Amino acid sequence: MSKKKIALACSVCGSRNYTITENLNRVERLEVKKFCRYCNQHTLHRETK
C-alpha cells in the first residue's frame, strides 16, 4: 500500500513548498515554521489536504 503525500502551504503567499507523508495518528493539521523561498523568510506552513 502506498503512502499519501500531503503538501505544506505557506500561510503568507500560499505556495506549496514542502511535502510530507500522511500520519494517520495525527488528528490536527500540522503547523511548522519553515523557510519559504518565495517570501525569502521563515513563515508558518500549514498542512493541506
TrEMBL record:
One record GO biological process: translation
Matching HAMAP family: Ribosomal_bL33 (MF_00294)
GO cellular component terms, semicolon-separated: cytoplasm; ribonucleoprotein complex; ribosome
Protein name: Large ribosomal subunit protein bL33
A Pfam family reported for this protein in Swiss-Prot or TrEMBL: Ribosomal_L33
Family label: Belongs to the bacterial ribosomal protein bL33 family.
Keywords assigned: Ribonucleoprotein, Ribosomal protein
InterPro entries the UniProt entry points to: Ribosomal_bL33, Ribosomal_bL33_sf, Ribosomal_zn-bd
Keyword Signal: no
Cross-referenced SUPFAM superfamilies: Zn-binding ribosomal proteins
Gene Ontology terms for molecular function: structural constituent of ribosome
NCBIfam families named in the record: PRK00504.1 (NF001764), rpmG_bact (TIGR01023)
Name of the gene this protein is made from: rpmG
